What does this fold into?
Amino acid sequence: MESHKEKSRVAILSVYAAVLLVLFKAVVGIATGSLGILSEALHSALDFVSAAITYVSVKISDKPADRDHNFGHGKVENLSALSEALLLFITCGWIIWEALSRLLSGETHIEVGFWSFAVVCVSIAVDVTRSRSLMKAAKKYNSQALEADALHFSTDIWSSAVVLLGLICASFGLYWADSVAALGVAFIVIWISARLAKRAINQLVDKAPDGMREVIAKIIRQTDGVEKWHALRVRSAGAEYEVDVNIHVKRNLSIVEAHEIAENVENRMKERLGKKALINVHVEPDD
It folds into this structure.
């Protein structure tokens, strides 16, 4: 399937990029003693873990429904996004602890040189490239796991920029700026992690996607033959939508005519939600 291949391709490229950045940042961070760069190295290490989780979840979520998973495997993507957020919270805890320890102890001296700036600039360039490719695929295939990765790496750009600013200040003798930059990275990551976690939890507990009930209600309202409807339920699982609704038709219609109206409702929904959406339309005679 073309969608599965493209989603898997951008996910695995993200894994490779994460591995290279971890190695580069770790070597430079240890050599210079920069907490900002070391925090970025740890951040990238968790990027690798989250990118690997995303890759696996994308492969699993695209599997069709089976006897044990009647509604498919889409929620694996939501679990992937939630696990990414939890990993990032753990990272932030370490960064904040180490940064405050350095600031309070006064041990903030670091070595700033060419490689310090090079590793951050390379990191920014890589994150711009992969966040764009991931977001493009996420929007194309409505993949929450890929979108979580894309948002994750877009915040890496800002966090790297904060570290870069800290290095510039440190090069002028303001070594404490490196630890402050690390704190800035932590707070940026906490903010985006909270957003990712909230969205993933909303889907795992079957919260109706924002605005989707209104969109579906409009589709039903504009379908010829539907007198009224009730019991509309909407949820999402990964990249797919599931909809249940009861529609009322004129009671003198034949079974075939009533079925055609229900099928029309279903087809119009799939035009809006995607062909793989699971639509269940129950028909009742109008009073």
